[in-house]
Design goal:
Layout (H helix, E strand, L loop, with lengths): L2 E8 L5 H10 L6 E5 L8 H7 L12 E2 L2 E3 L5 E4 L4 H14 L6 E5 L6 H10 L9 E11 L3 H7 L1 H9 L2 E5 L6 H14 L4 E4 L7 H4 L27 E8 L4 H14 L8 E10 L6 E7 L2 E6 L10 E9 L3 H9 L6
Parallel strand pairs: 1-6, 1-7, 2-5, 2-6, 7-8, 8-9
Antiparallel strand pairs: 3-4, 4-5, 10-14, 11-12, 11-14, 12-13
């Protein structure tokens, strides 16, 4: 089974490095590789930040191989050299040589990064998603409760980071009043109603909440175009949820989805989908399938065993701009297989 990659993103000052420090030092029982972003790499800024507070202190058992540092708790820290995919492949190869395997790989992006291209790169590389490779598991976004409203207004990256998230850590909650915290929650939910919002202070969180989101359990992939992403702006990003009962015709559903993700986004006023996910049933299969999509890249994998197999309900969530809920619902319903 491939190793799950968790992308940690968030705007400048949201607490990403504090979370990384916790992961590298805490006795949490996970074997995690942490890949630091390369912003300020020439000055060694990121490396200095994660080495403070004893991480780079008298740790006699750590092994340094190039930019690879292994710590007492079994975690590994490194920086991106070359492409992201090459860095991950290098980590996996070194671990394989040692006869061990990571539980997870965490990738910290820069505070100004759009996580969409990062997710696409992890999906598009065919060698990376092989059985013994790595696969995108989740996107976790940290937000500064005291500054996120202003950041959303002034920076499209802050909005995109919220929109793409599976889990949102509403950090620095101790710096705002209770009523302000509730207002911020509502503002975030208006952009991404499906992400789990976890209130934190100093980036302290149970890693079981942010890891193992279920993507790793799948194995299949959707077809992937190599088209450039469209321009995305702050305004009108929202969440739309649709559902329909009955088994879907697999080919019809795939054609509808690809038209939605690939063609309509380029049309004037067309739906600009940043993120899509859901559960679907296709005719001829008794398995529930899981859909995950980031912009024009998608995958459909076998889902977890369901508790109530008698209910056949397809449920999809779209996050993006220019979303027509009625048209999306009609489109999904048109994919239901005819008897």
């Amino acid at each position: 089974m491939p190793v799950g990659v968790c992308v940690i993103t968030g705007f400048l000052g949201s607490g990403k490095t504090t979370l990384v420090n916790y992961i590298l030092k805490a006795d949490h029982g996970y074997r995690i590789a942490v890949i630091l972003n390369d912003f300020g790499a020439e000055l060694g800024v990121e490396k200095m930040l994660v080495q403070q507070d004893g991480v780079d202190g008298d740790n006699a058992s750590r092994t340094l191989v190039e930019d690879w540092v292994e710590l007492n708790n079994g975690c590994v820290c490194c920086t991106v050299k070359g492409s992201l995919v090459q860095t991950i492949e290098g980590l996996l190869e070194k671990r394989k040589e040692m006869g061990e395997k990571f539980d997870f790989i965490l990738l910290e992006t820069t505070g100004l990064a759009d996580p969409g291209p990062v997710a696409r790169e992890l999906w598009v590389d065919d060698e990376l998603v092989e059985e013994d490779g790595a696969v995108l598991d989740s996107i976790v976004t940290l937000v500064d409760a005291s500054n996120i409203e202003k950041q959303i207004e002034e920076n499209k990256e802050a909005t995109l980071q919220v929109a793409y998230a599976d889990t949102i850590l509403l950090n620095k909650a101790d710096l705002v009043k209770a009523e302000d915290l509730e207002r911020v929650k509502a503002r975030i939910a208006a952009i991404n109603a499906e992400a789990e919002i976890v209130v934190t202070t100093r980036s302290s969180v149970d890693l079981g909440i942010v890891l193992n989101q279920g993507t790793v359990a799948g194995g299949g992939c959707g077809r992937k175009p190599y088209a450039p992403a469209s321009s995305v702006h702050n305004s009108d990003i929202r969440t739309v949820c649709i559902a329909t009962s009955g088994f879907l015709d697999g080919e019809s559903f795939q054609n509808w989805l690809e038209d939605l993700l690939w063609e309509r986004r380029n049309a004037e006023g067309g739906a600009d989908i940043l993120r899509a996910k859901g559960l679907v049933y296709t005719a001829g299969s008794d398995k529930r399938r899981v859909l995950q999509a980031v912009r024009e890249v998608y995958e459909i994998t076998d889902g977890p065993v369901e508790e109530n197999s008698d209910e056949v309900m397809n449920k999809l969530v779209f996050i993006g701009r220019n979303l027509d809920e009625d048209a999306l619902a009609v489109g999904l319903k048109s994919c239901v297989a005819r008897d």
